[in-house]
Model the fold of this input.
Amino acid sequence: MKERDLSGFRASLAAGAPPAGLSPALLALWRDARGDWEGAHEAAQADEGGAGDWVHAYLHRKEGDAGNAAYWYRRASKPVCRASLDEEWAAIAEALLRSEARSAPSSGE
Done:
């Protein structure tokens, strides 16, 4: 599926609705990129204990809450990011898209 790579995922941001079947963490990134921080935060919280923790950390870093962000980075077993927010968003999206592509059943199954 085209939106399962970073360029396709970015292209999907022009659509009125997110691509079908996004994980909560990817949905959170999609909503964040569209300027919906609250919707992004809600989606990240829906995946607590999973990839959503990493996105949750990014979102709190973006809002300027370094203490809360640090807590979520620890929960996600990730270092506190020092890159730009745009670079972090892309890195998280790319990692999650790769992870989901590896775990998706092949088209021959």
About this structure: Helices lie at 6-11, 24-33, 37-45, 52-62, 66-75, 85-103. The longest helix spans residues 85-103. The two ends are 16 Å apart (CA to CA). The chain has a mean pLDDT of 91.
